[in-house]
Amino acid sequence: MIKSALAAAGYTDSIIYQYSRHRLLTRGVLQFKGKGVTHVIASDATLLAFLLPASSQRYQPRYGITTYNAPATFLET
């Protein structure tokens, strides 16, 4: 669904990484960083699980989030 919406907006080179318990998000971070991905859209609550290994690898893309990702968690007080 996200990929088709991005394609309709003209972004035809999007990369999909599906997380499962058997695949570590660290692999996704390495894949995205290696391919020069500059924007990451998280469609579920695993954003924090992606942010942690990305941060430790000094990979800082822009993130597309929704309220489902609980963005209040990332706000500084």
Description:
With 77 residues, this protein is mainly alpha-helical. The protein has a domain at 18-68. Helices cover 35% and strands 8% of the residues. The protein contains 3 helices and 2 strands. It has helices at 2-8, 25-34, 47-56, and strands spanning 39-41, 62-64. The protein has a two-stranded parallel sheet. α2 (25-34) crosses α3 (47-56). The radius of gyration is 13 Å and the shape is globular. The chain starts with a helix and ends in a 13-residue tail after the last strand. The model has no long low-confidence stretch (mean pLDDT 82).
The separation of the N and C termini measures 34 Å
Derived from helix and strand composition plus strand pairing, the structural class reads: mainly alpha
Q: What's the total number of strands?
A: 2
What is the overall silhouette? globular
Q: What structural keywords apply?
A:
77 residues; mainly alpha; two-stranded parallel ribbon
